[in-house]
Design a protein that fits this description.
The chain has 312 residues and is α/β, with parallel strands linked by helices. The chain contains twelve helices and 13 strands. The chain has a single domain, classed as Ribokinase (UDP-N-acetylmuramoyl-L-alanine:D-glutamate ligase, 3-Layer(aba) Sandwich), CATH 3.40.1190. The longest helix is centred in the C-terminal third of the chain and has 18 residues. The chain is globular and about 75 Å long. The structure holds adenosine monophosphate (AMP).
């Protein structure tokens, strides 16, 4: 097995979504699906761990496999697949949940095969932090563990999240989540508090406005991409995380500079993902489009030093 192999654990879903640009029912979604597909652009044999019900269309599994994703860790249980029903208004940074039906996810207890335990790059997408801890305890010797969460767990499992914060290498949260978790409206202060609690690094996703990266001694601001095609933001955070971990694993370079590049790759993947519903845009995405958009974002943030030395 490749020593930079990737493990992604999270939800596999059938989503019903309404945005100002349309409505789709029972489409392929889930945090692990978006992250896994996005990571598969960088590494073959991304390992997906999750659960589906007996109603989950086999064609979706075949589709994931067609991207070289290893689906041995997708457990099939009697019952219904996890469903999320949500909508967005014109501020598409804010998802509104209509209904969450955990179904088989409610009793999911991730069982890691030896190939999963040996993975070096791990993304624990949004799900119960106690289960995230359970997965973490089974990993042999990971190089990077990145963890995402959401408001639901911040409200209901704060203590477990504190343990996760200490154990992970990268905490990913969106701006409203980190404000809620650290109880301050100020993002740099919230990130500092998280680092004081033991986080090694923090990525704050700001939807269409880019992302921020904090460690104890550094700060990096990833610019936004001026998104003109925007149909459905579902999965933006997870495709960001998939691209981020995928690029880190592909390069095997854990320097600060490469973290920055990986964050931009994450932004690029998210920016493509939101161009259509479900994973439709990722289906047609080409590597050369990724390279082109990366370069555009890089140029947006370039500027020269001040040229005046004397103010008077
Ligand atoms: P995001 O990247 O945050 O937009 O993630 C979107 C995906 O998260 C959707 O496809 C949903 O199926 C999934 N999702 C929504 N709520 C939950 C939840 N409570 N636990 C796990 N996954 C969820």
């Amino acid at each position: 097995m490749d020593e930079n192999s990737i493990l992604i654990v999270g939800s596999i879903a059938l989503d019903t979504i309404k945005t100002p640009f349309g409505e789709k029912k029972e489409i392929l979604g889930g945090s692990a699906v978006y992250a896994g597909l996005s990571a598969s652009f960088y590494k073959k044999n991304v390992n997906l761990l999750g659960v589906v019900g007996s109603d989950f269309p086999q064609k979706h599994i075949k589709f994931l496999e067609s991207y070289g994703i290893n689906t041995e860790g997708i457990e099939k249980q009697q019952g219904k697949t996890f469903r999320w029903d949500g909508y967005y208004e014109y501020d598409m940074n804010q998802a509104h949940t209509v209904k969450t039906k955990l179904n088989v996810l409610a009793t999911f207890n991730p069982k890691l095969l030896p190939r999963h335990k040996a993975c070096k790059y791990v993304f624990l997408a949004n799900f119960d932090p106690d289960l995230q801890l359970e997965v973490l305890s089974q990993l042999k010797d990971p190089k990077i563990v990145a963890v995402d969460t959401m408001d639901y767990w911040i409200k209901n499992k704060r203590k477990s999240l504190h343990k996760i914060v200490k154990a992970a290498d990268v905490i990913l949260m969106n701006d409203s989540e980190i404000r809620q978790f650290m109880e301050t409206p100020n993002i740099p202060i919230a990130a500092r508090r998280l680092i004081e609690l033991g986080a090694k690094s923090v990525i704050v996703k700001k939807g269409e406005h880019g992302a921020l990266f904090f460690t104890e001694s550094t700060h990096f601001s990833a610019p936004s991409y001026p998104q003109e095609f925007f149909r459905d933001p579902t999965g933006a955070g997870d495709s960001f995380a998939g691209g981020f971990i995928g690029y880190l694993a592909k390069t095997g370079d854990l320097s600060q500079e490469n973290f920055k590049k990986s964050i931009i790759i994450g932004s690029v993947m998210a920016s493509f993902n939101v161009e259509d519903f479900s994973v439709e845009r990722l289906k047609t995405l080409k590597h050369k489009e990724i390279v082109k958009r990366f370069e555009m974002i890089r140029r947006f943030s370039e500027f020269e030093p001040l040229s005046i030395s004397n103010w008077m």
